[in-house]
Structure formats: C-alpha cells, structure tokens
Design goal:
- The protein has ten helices and no strands.
- It is mainly alpha-helical.
- The protein folds into two domains: 64 residues, Arc Repressor Mutant, subunit A, CATH 1.10.10; 142 residues, Tetracycline Repressor, domain 2 (Orthogonal Bundle).
- Helix 3 packs across helix 5 and helix 5 packs across helix 7.
Length: 234
C-alpha cells in the first residue's frame, strides 16, 4: 500500500447530507475548487466538510490530515499534466520539452495550489509515472543511470521552480501583480544612469523582466542537455 493511503474498509459508502458519495476524487475536486477560490486557508477539514455536507471527521477515512490531502492535490495536477502524453514516438528532447510545457501550464491553471505544493514529493501514482517517464527520456538520450537521475532532478526542479514562481505571481491580488509588472517601465525607467549605468543601457528592454522567464530557461536547459547527450541509448 502506498504511503498515506487509507484502507478501503474505512471509507464511507453512504451519501452525505447533501447527497454526495464521498471518495478521494470527490474530496480532491472540492479541495481544488475551495483553494482556487479562497486560498490556502480553505484547505481545512471544517471547510471541506461544510462544502461536502458531511461531518469533517469523515474526511479522515480518506486522508490522514490536510498535508496528506495537499499531496493528493499536487498529484492530481501532475496527473492532469501527463494526461494523454505519450513521448514514445518523439525525439527525447522534444519529449522533455512537451513534458515541461504541460507541467508549467497545469500549475498555472491551479496557481494557489502550485504555490503551496510545487516543491513537495507526493509519493503517489501520477508522480511515479512522471518520474519514470522523465528518467526514461534521459536514459534514451544515452546518459548513464546516475547521470539520468541527476539531470532529471535538475530538469524537473527547474520546471517546477518556474511553475511555482509564475503561479505565485498569478495568485497575487490583481493590484499587486500589476504594480510588480509596471515597476520595470516605471521605477526602473527612472533610475539614475550615473548610479546604474548597465540598467540605463538596456532600459528599453527591461519590460521583458515583467514576463515569465520559463520559456527561455527551458530552451537553455534543453540545449545544454542535447549538447551533453552521449547519443541514443536503449
């Protein structure tokens, strides 16, 4: 049994007062909606119980605690990212690019959960499959086993790090997000050229700092992996 899973015999089979039959998927669906609307504070058994029409204690039949549930939310996002993804017919670098784009997109679609969980290890099925796929692509590039694992860690940490940064930015209140973006054409544009000569020389390009650097970072990383790859493996 995977770590964190609750034995099936402990799970509720009867509908709640609102007519919902509880399951892990139903609880995760509800938690994603609540966190998406209200932020991290919504991830509580009290609020979930109220939303599902059940006694909060019923949720402990499915998840040990709210951290266990958070890992399930993170794993759901990983599953969404991998849905329909089949890299077997792709060159290995294209497979990694597609994998990265999918992860980044799905975390941006759930920014408040991403900001809470992008750095966690879920220890669940979707994560197992994603790690297996990523390491497999790097082994196919010809990297030895230890290098494939090490480079996969660098790859996925880069992707998740950018996903978490971009998700946290999206999760900000609109006025704060706009203020941060406008700083590059406002505050920075007015800095003294004498004190900050390098910034002054690239002033016209500083608005680029307001967007995500994910695409540029991904291309740099993939180019480095392609340059380092020994050649097609097994």
């Amino acid at each position: 049994m995977a770590e964190g899973r609750i034995p099936a015999e402990r799970r509720r089979r009867k509908p709640t007062k609102s007519g919902v039959v509880l399951s892990e998927d139903v609880i995760v669906d509800c938690a994603l909606r609540l966190v998406g609307r209200h932020g991290p504070d919504a991830l509580s058994v009290r609020r979930l119980g109220a939303a599902l029409g059940c006694d909060p204690s019923a949720l402990y039949r499915y998840f040990h605690n709210t951290d266990d549930l958070l890992l399930a939310l993170a794993d759901r996002i990983i599953g969404e990212a991998q849905s329909g993804f089949d890299p077997d017919g792709m060159p290995w670098a294209e497979g990694l690019r597609e994998m990265a784009l999918r992860i980044h997109r799905c975390y941006r679609e759930h920014p408040r959960v991403a900001a809470m969980a992008a750095y966690r290890v879920t220890r669940r099925l979707n994560e197992f499959r994603a790690v297996d796929t990523g390491i497999g692509l790097l082994r196919r590039a010809g990297f030895d086993d230890a290098t494939a694992v090490r480079y996969y860690a660098a790859f996925v940490d880069t992707v998740l790090g950018h996903a978490a940064l971009d998700a946290a930015h999206l999760a900000l209140p609109v006025e704060r997000r706009e203020a941060d973006d406008l700083a590059w054409v406002g505050v920075y544009a007015g800095l003294s050229a004498r004190e900050y000569p390098q910034l002054a020389s690239v002033r016209g390009h500083l608005p680029l700092m307001g967007g995500s650097s994910f695409d540029a970072a991904l291309e740099l990383l993939l180019a480095a992996l392609v340059a380092a790859a020994p050649g097609e493996g097994g």
